[in-house]
User: What shape does this take?
Amino acid sequence: MKVVGIVCSPRRGGNTEILVREALDTIQESGGTTELITISGRNIAFCDGCRTCVEKGICHINDDMQEICQKLLECDGLILGTPVYFANVTAQAKAIMDRLYVLFSQRRLRGKVAGAIVIARRVGAGQVLSLLYSYFLAHRMYVAGGSIGYGRDRGDVKDGVGGGADTTALGEARNLGRAIISLHEQLSK
Ligand SMILES: Cc1cc2nc3c(=O)[nH]c(=O)nc-3n(C[C@H](O)[C@H](O)[C@H](O)COP(=O)(O)O)c2cc1C
Assistant: This one.
């Protein structure tokens, strides 16, 4: 299976990237192929709501989102990773989510497997995780699960706990990788 991980933190090498890499590494160790996309430094405009994509199946905005859409069409699974910014996803994550309207309108992500990775310093991770699950379901994707990590500064998440009792954040990210592989195997039977 091929899984694309999108890091929606503007901070390169930050906590989100660390956990998304951990999940992708686990998928690779299980025989999958992976690709990491970081939004940092990319040019991604906001959706302007023109609905051209609904009528024509293409987005009229020519930026880095075209390449990301192509990669998502070719993959079997997606990991969306975002830090919590004021109890929500980052603006970069929201821009990507909205721009995927072009794939939503044609149900092009339907049947793919999805997982979420959320990092917070303290508050809001659970609600952002729920928000991402709802987003995946809107696309008719299969939700394998999600993992949470806590930390503020770059790398904090390596020593931090996950959302579950007695679970490290890195361990949760690995569990998410395994859950994605397992769900994809079940769906492929
Ligand atoms: C603008 C901004 C808003 C934030 N809002 C929250 C918040 O609402 N709750 C929280 O627990 N942490 C919040 N944080 C902390 C980040 O979620 C935390 O530093 C995280 O580790 C950043 O991930 P990164 O290293 O991948 O960029 C905020 C950070 C920034 C820069």
In short: The chain has one domain: 2-188. Residues 2-188 form a domain with the Rossmann fold fold (CATH 3.40.50.360). The pocket of flavin mononucleotide is lined by residues 9, 11, 14-16, 83-87, 119-124, 151-152, 154 (CB under 6 Å). The CA atoms of residues 89 and 178 lie 24 Å apart.
